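The authors assume throughout that readers already know how a fold can be written as discrete tokens. A single example would do more here than another paragraph of explanation. An entry of this sort, consisting of the sequence and the corresponding backbone structure tokens, reads as follows:
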Amino acid sequence: MPGESGLNSRLKLMKSYIKDELRKTYEAGLRRTFIDIEGAQGPRVTVNGRSLLHFSSNDYLTLASDPRLIEAANAATVEFGAGSGASRLVSGNMTPHMALEERLKAFKGTEAVLLFNSGYQANTGVIPVLAGRGDDIFSDRLNHASIIDGIAISRARLSRYPHRDTGALERLLKASTARRKLIITDGVFSMDGTVAPLGDIAELAEKYGAFIYIDDAHGTGVLGAKGRGVVEEAGVDASRTLQMGTLGKALGSFGAFVAGSAGLIELIKNRARSFIFSTSLPPGACGASTAAIDIVESEPERRAAVRENAAYLRKSLLESGFETGESTTQIIPVIIGDAKRVMVMSKKLFKRGFLVQGIRPPTVAKGTERLRITTMSAHTREDINQLANALTEVFNEVTGE
């Protein structure tokens, strides 16, 4: 067959490339593998028949397996079906989508809300709507990968400021002559557990005529007196911001949303490609998320337990000499600084009955490799004490101390 030898040559080159890249990945200690969970998410999970204490989940309020969410998901599925058919702009706006958006609008205290299928899709779809060529974006250096990708798609000029450094941010804003200025920040930083200085950022935005986009994936449901997130926690007027939140972390379901002014949400609905060209959330996920918001508002003891557990664990780790950075939330990094050592520690913890994931580049910078530990509302003090003791034992084994 004409051209067959050329095709075979190109296939060999591709196979060689794949083999070489995998070898480099493995040699650098960056191989990623799945851990197969048997059963539901929770403070304990089952792997290969073993019960493990789970300290790697973003299910902070222990809602993913809550019977009320399951019942709501089942009811919505029975009434409205397993799937939504297509994009809402194609197959129609279903009742569960509208009900969830109305519930989120009341919860966040904004004029409007629009659902997305994930936080990643929200960030990569919304940021190019907010800024483009000729505009300036100011992004915290530790912002999530989805924000970095959304900025790249937008083609706006990017200025990164050191983590939570509002002095550096002000210098960048002052020097900017762009027609539009957009400040983007995580609310709670997913690998560090730090919180954006949103009050100071809001003052700078007002002073220099900038708009703020907040990724509040890890704050929604946990921070604030009513669980509304970092904006509520900081006491910032939401009218000059656009907030993104997720439904699959503290709210225990799946999906994401953006909350802001009616005009801005209308613009995003008409311009965000990741919304326009994606099949919408299934009705069951919408039903579960709506039920989750009711629980967040009616059971504040859940988020209180999350934060109390985090404070207790952080204190124990610091007293044992571990470096936890500047975390003040339910996300606690144990910074080790070596990719292979982190993964050895993770495996040793697994053998002892703990699910704690190691985090390596490119998720975090080289030299800051860490164990990422998260607390849930259902963790007990005994669970936390067991983990703290196991961490010390494993660290001593790995380092020979």
Q: What stands out?
A: The first helix runs from residue 4 to 27.
